[in-house]
Structure formats: structure tokens, C-alpha cells
Amino acid sequence: MKRSRTNVLVSVLLMFCAGMTTAVWGDEASDAYDKGIKFLSEGRQRDAITAFDQAIRLNPRSAEAYLGRGMAYNETGKNEQALKDYDAALALNPQYAEAYFNRGNTYSDLGQHERALKDYNETVRLDSNHSGAVFNRSVANMFLRHPETAADARAYVKLKGWKDERTQYMVIFGAFGDRWAQRETEARQLLDEAAANCNTSAWPYPVIRYLRRDMSVDDLLAAATDPDKKTEARAYLGLDLVLAGKQDEALTHLHWVKDNGKKNFSEYAFAVSELGRLEAGAGN
Predict the structure, then answer these.
(1) CA-to-CA distance for 80 and 266, rounded, in angstroms?
(2) Which of 174, 241, 229, 173 is nearest to 202 (CA)?
């Protein structure tokens, strides 16, 4: 699963807001902001930064322009500048859910998952229907091995239903969360609900089948027919085998992901994180 980036959706929301800015900001600031949004949606981040610079000069109290520039900085890898802009947006509007959400994404990119988690929590507090924040919060909880990812899974199903393309991943996360908390019955119930409601012909349903013990390790690996699926399957096999106390088998799969997996996938990062945890434990 490629790491979740929902900035495109945020851009659409910002475009909607852009049409309402002229009366408040004045024509020049509004025009600069609109250009920044257009460039951002087209992937022209450097041009977007220039446009947002102008919007901020003309209207230094525009939380929206700081958010837009922060998104552009984040997408060009300038994460420290992005964080400063999100901080500025929140100083101007402490109730700005999208600024918390995007700052959380940047903290996640930096591997600062505790900080990311706090911002996703604040996003959901301000906007309980923010499915992107619920999803990204569950990813942060997976990194941190927090059982709360099970609650995120159930919240996501309520928001998006069983047919959403991310729901099966959330079920997988939730099952691990319940198992980390030694709630085996709840984990099984979540997996059974998925079996009854999800599209069982779609990937990653074979992972759910494996976690329900309806499929063997070899069968899951056979179902993983391309590098993307192999990365996911072996990462989840590794996490599952650690829980089963089969560390040597787990290490085989986790090392495969580290050496051969798709590096832009969350599962790659999960596997590397779990390897670090196991190696740190072995050194104690």
C-alpha cells in the first residue's frame, strides 16, 4: 500500500474556498492564492510556492495561504519549511483541521510518529468525519504498535463502509491492534465481519484470509503475484509470525521486505520498524 497522501483532496477543498476569498482579501491576494492552488493541483510546487509567497505578502493573516505553501514545501521535501507554515496557519486559526492534518503528514514523513499522532487526533477532534486523518492515524498507530489502531479500523468502516478501497487495509491494521492488546476474540470478529462484507476477490483480501487461518503461508505467498503484493504479504506475515512467537520465520519475511520490497509502501516501513524493534530487543 503506497503511503497515504490526501493533499490532492485538500487542494480541491482549497479551490472551493478560493472562490470566496476575493471580498475578504482583495483582488490581488485572491488572484495570487488562486494561482498557488492551481499550480499545486498541477504538481508545479515551485510555482505554487512563489504564488503563495505573494499571497502572504499581500495578506499576511491568510491561514489558507500558509497551508497551501506548507503543502507545496512538503511535496518538494522541504519539511522544516512546511512545518513552519503549518505552525503559522494554526497560530492564525487554531481550529484549522486541515493544517493539523497536513502537519501530521509531514511529521509522519520525518518519522516523528508520536507528533503525527497528536495532530491526527486533533484533526479528528475538530472534524470527526475526516476519514483521511483516521486512516493516517491508524498508520501512525501501526508504527508505534498501539492497540488504538483497532478503534481506528472500526471508525473508518463506519465512515466509509466495507467497499472502500482502504477498508480491507484498515481491517488488517485493526486485527493487529486487537492482537497487540491480547483481544483475540475482537480481532477474529473484525476479520469475520470483513469476510462477510468485503470484496473477497480484491487484494488484500488474501491477507485477511491468512489472518483468519483460512490460507497458509505458502498460499498467501502464491497469491502475491507482483512486487507490490509481495511487499505487503511478507510484511504482514512477518508481523503475524512475531506475534506467534516464530521469530526466525518472521525475520526471513521482514528481511525480504527490507532487501526487496517497495520502499514507498507503508508495509516496507512497518517491516523495517519491526526489524529495528527485534534487533534492539536482541541486543538487550
Answers:
(1) 22
(2) 229
pTM of the predicted model, to two decimals?
0.90
What's the pLDDT tens digit per position in 14-37?
A: 443 444 444 444 589 899 999 999
Provide the 3-class DSSP secondary structure of residue 2.
Answer: strand
Q: What is the DSSP string of 85-142?
A: HHHHHHHH-TT-HHHHHHHHHHHHHTT-HHHHHHHHHHHHHH-TT-HHHHHHHHHHHH
Q: How far apart are CA 139 and CA 15, in angstroms?
A: 28
Task: Give how far the C-alpha of residue 157 lies from the chain's centroid of Cα atoms, to the nearest Å.
Answer: 16
Query: Could you give the CA distance from residue 118 to residue 120 in angstroms, rounded to a whole number?
Result: 6
What secondary structure does DSSP assign to 224-270, as a single string? --SHHHHHHHHHHHHHHHHHTT-HHHHHHHHHHHHHHS-TTBHHHHH
Q: Which of 80, 56, 76, 78 is nearest to 66 (CA)?
A: 56
What span, in angstroms and rounded, lies between the C-alpha atoms of 36 and 45? 8
Domain boundaries, the chain: 6-127
pLDDT in tens, 113-141: 999 999 999 999 999 999 999 999 999 99
Domain 6-127 in CATH 1.25.40.10: yes
CA gap 142, 157 in Å, rounded:
17
d(CA 257, CA 277): 15
